[in-house]
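Progress narrative, Year 2. Work on Methyltransferase type 11 from Rippkaea orientalis advanced from sequence curation to structure prediction during this period.
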Amino acid sequence: MNSLLDAPMSPYFQNLFIVNHKRRHKFVAIAKGGSTTLKRITILDDGISEDGSEDIQGVHDILGFRHNGTSLVDVSSDLFPDYTRVAVYRDPIERFISYYKDKVLNSPLSHARKAGLTPETPLEKILEYLEQELGHSDPLWIDEHIRPQARHYQLHQIDIIVHLDDLNHYLHSIGVETVSREYYNSSENIPVELPEPIQVKLKALYQEDYQIIEQNSAKLWQKSDSISLTTNLKQRNNQMKPLTEIAAFVGDDWKSSPYYDDAEPAMDSQWQYLVYPFIEGSDFSNTIDLAAGHGRNTVKLKEIADKIIIIDINQENLDYCQERFKGEENISYVKTDGTELPGIPDESITFIYCWDAMVHFDSDVIRSYLKEFHRVLVPGGRGFCHHSNYTENPGGDVHVNPGWRNFMSAPLFAHYCAKENLKIVQQKVMDWGVPSLDCLSLFEK
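Result:
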């Protein structure tokens, strides 16, 4: 670093992590790359703002351009070494368009305007200015809004790269609710098209950024159940892992499990005295059997349902059911990643059924499924879930809990239903070897 930078620098210039202590994450603060959203989430999560109602500039004032304890740290800092380090990647051309709309077309007091760029300035001249700015030998003297993403961090300083288009999905996987569009800059609505020669020039100027994705796919986070992370990350607890990985952690226990054979004989009495009286009167014409295992529930559902979709996280279980119900044309099969109902059309299902499986699901996985339930259910459609009512050992290993029950309760399940616009019809707390260990919930869209 040269002598000009020996003095304390404005955060306008520094390369920083936005530190979210609640989520135990450090996000690289890249302007025009989701940083405003990440700052807003952080000021809410960590209690810096009461309701997060600040406008965009207010968010930056709170957690952008002033010292705020440990909410901003240099990317080279060794503070919070066990936090997951994430860089959000945005296509450089998209990022330039966002800069152009916001700083040239929409902000008369911006650095770009002060440099003489106006809405009337030809794009070719703006590219000349851009090329001149990118020519600074020290990346910290490049305006953060046009600084290449590759100049914000070294690859060894991050664990995961998330595409901006996937940011909401990633945030959801670590427990953050979907981010409202109102959080984004209003200038995003200004239409701009770049001629092909301008795009070619930008690709050349931001070659380093394109190489991030080309050369570092091992760190790229994907919305799948096989997250491509081959780096030696420090061991992190389940809450910090992608949601699909949390679901798979539980699902792996039920690949060809001997429990299925042991539990089958009890299904007749469970159905007659407990399950069917609870769900009687629902519309079973198009039913999902979620986490079906070896199909002991499907046998009962066949007696009342016109069509059944068997859904399971394990291909081994789907293969078993396909052999068991071979030739039954009213039964179809879907493999899930443990959080979604892929390929199921909106408002196409009349009843969702899940018995003796959700008791093991992580609470965030349940919340994700409830969102999907609302999507696929017809108006008035119902769902039945047998889930845990065990509230000890929050965040602990499910395998040390009685019956491998995960953290959940009747009130929490009802709360999640309300959040997803599902109405509880009835609930029943019941014993399962341990008093009040489980709960039955019937809900309706």
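The chain has 15 helices and twelve strands. Residues 392 and 407 are 7 Å apart (CA to CA).
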